[in-house]
Please model this.
Amino acid sequence: MLRVAYDAAEAERVREHHPAFQRDGFAGELVPEGALPEVLQRPGRIGLLTPHDGAVHPARWLRALARDLERRGARIHEGTRVVQPPSLNGHGVQVLTDHGAVLAERVVIAADGALPSLVPAAVHARARRLNMLATAPDQQPRLPCPVSIRDGYEYAQQLPDGRVALGGFSDLDGPASYTDREELSVSVQERLTRYLGEDLGVSAPVTHRWVGIVSYAQDPVPTCGPVPGTEDRVLAAGGYNGTGHVQGFLAGRIAAELAVTGTSPQADLYARVVP
Ligand SMILES: Cc1cc2nc3c(=O)[nH]c(=O)nc-3n(C[C@H](O)[C@H](O)[C@H](O)COP(=O)(O)OP(=O)(O)OC[C@H]3O[C@@H](n4cnc5c(N)ncnc54)[C@H](O)[C@@H]3O)c2cc1C
Model:
């Protein structure tokens, strides 16, 4: 993974990032402007390469996880939307879905983007949409590894077959980005298209455009723990600020430990669900 400083101010932050990384025991190499991928080279730019970092193919990753869970006896119901926050019902928890009600002993709400709607007590987390696009294969190899730029606002990778996936400019979306509506933002998509051609030099046509819904915590520590007023029968996790590929797994383990034993040695890493 390569972090690229967009301008001189970010280059300063990258220079501070490097020793901070090392203090925490991570490998990382500063990359001078001339050694950046050609398409990203601009006067004053530098990069920070973290060779231990990487990207996953989300669909393959989730299918592999799902297969493994099913082998262990879990049952997965897709296409069943929970339509309101789960509530106590006798000695259990009632989960109302668009296909009927489910009564459970315990419930874990592990849906980052849906945290604010399914856990109204998590007032400090807000749903946010992030725009993406992908292109047809571009003949020229431009990005040798996943790249994040402008403090992580933009992120791009070129797949082995040459396709480029690019996301970003959620700040351009402004207050409108705080929504759980799965609708493209026209202005952000236009800006991404321009960035693709002007900054990354990609001329391959755009084949896919989409948004993903996540949630951002104002704290900004993510949330994980019991939902107040549910006798600890409902646990919730989310508010990962766009970093759930790491945080989600840690929060998942904490939620599982809390559900099974009532305690977790790492529970204090995250904010509690408080109204
Ligand atoms: C464009 C983009 C780029 C990102 N880049 C990174 C990155 O580089 N690194 C990183 O760490 N993270 C990144 N993230 C964030 C990361 O994807 C999320 O933080 C992570 O997926 C959260 O995992 P989760 O399991 O909590 O929720 P999700 O992966 O969102 O899964 C929740 C599931 O619950 C389902 N669901 C939602 N609402 C309901 C409901 N009411 N009823 C039933 N089911 C429901 C959803 O359909 C989904 O299947 C990115 C996100 C986006 C959108």
About this structure: The chain has six helices and 14 strands.
